[in-house]
Amino acid sequence: MTRRLLPPILADALRSVRDAAGDAEYELAPEGFRSSGSGKRGWDVESVARAQKEAWPRFLESIGGSGPLGVSHEAIDASKGDIAAHNVIMSFGYVLALASRRLERMSLLDWGGGLGQYYPLARVLSPEVEIEYHCRDLPLLCREGRLLNPDATFHTEDETCLRRGYDLVLASSSLQYSEDWRGTVARLAAAAKPYLFVTRMPIVHREPSFVVIQRAYRYGYDTEYPGWFLNRGEFLDHLRSLGMKLVREFLIQEIPVVHRAPERGEQRGFLFRPDSDRSAIGPEESS
User: Fold this and answer.
1) Closest C-alpha to 100, from 167, 47, 162
2) How confident is the model over 119-148, as pLDDT tens digits?
3) Residue 112 is part of a domain; what is its CATH number?
4) Residues 196-223: what's their mean pLDDT?
5) pLDDT per residue as tens digits for the range 137-195
6) 10-19 pLDDT tens trace
7) H or E segment at 52?
């Protein structure tokens, strides 16, 4: 009621005060992953698994038929198209087509894959290719994923899923939640035989990498969690040090303003392959 009675400039000022008090969805975490929060931190909570499970039928309906593939698996309303979701899905379709080139069957590891939403997407985007799908995530999400995706293999530990190689290793909106992102992406790169696709990654261009807290209440998640906004140059330099070559970069979407952050970020995708692997055909080598 108060906001309705205030002029826009005062309403904006009130909103700024509210955000400063800690209600902003994104906020800089000066102490990194050790920054204090509400105590309801992390992804392995029932509200996340419940919200994604409830959205599952809407998501499956949205990718059926001939309509645009533009609905996020986290969408509350699947009747509205989303350009960012379309970017995510079409980028994945490009990567999947490249990774499955000349293959009748391909292996895919979805690291941080939730309930396995990329599995039905892969079958829609490449129906002629048999997908051996593996998903690595936390116990509660894997529990629900096994029920919804009985043909997929779910892993709750890196040790079980990273002991082998995959035609494509996918990390979609997941690498940023690993405190030791350098060590994590090194293990993912080692399992990429040959392709590694890191996407929906928060990226900044000028400032050094920093950590933010996201309060994900609008998705139905009764939790909050820290995550990296990685400096693009720092990220690419580290992948080069691992012997990985950038094949293609993708634009996804801008990220809402982060309270107190030194730079506004954007989500990008990056497709890599081993620099020494001449059998992996990239667009720059195609005739």
Assistant:
1) 167
2) 999 999 999 999 999 999 999 999 999 999
3) 3.40.50.150
4) 95
5) 999 999 999 999 999 999 999 999 999 999 999 999 999 999 999 999 999 999 999 99
6) 334 334 434 4
7) helix 46-63
Strand (E) or helix (H) holding 117: none
**Among candidates 123, 69, 85, which has minimal Cα distance to 200?**
85
Alpha carbons 125 and 98: distance in angstroms, whole number: 12
H or E, element range at 281: none
DSSP 20: I
Contact 105, 132 (CB under 8 A): yes
Q: In terms of pTM, does the model score above 0.90?
A: no
Label residue 33 exposed, middle or buried (CB < 10 Å: 0-12, 13-18, 19+). Answer: middle
Whole-number Å distance between alpha carbons of 62 and 72: 9
Strands 130-136 and 105-111: parallel
Flag whether 39 is in a domain. Answer: no
When divided into structural domains, the chain yields a total of: 1
Could you give the 3-state DSSP secondary structure of residue 222? Answer: coil
Tell me the residue range of the domain where 144 lies: 46-278
Where does residue 156 rank: exposed (0-12), middle (13-18), buried (19+ CB within 10 A)? middle
- Residue 181 — φ and ψ, nearest 5°? -65, -30
Instruction: Answer yes or no: is 54 within a domain.
Output: yes
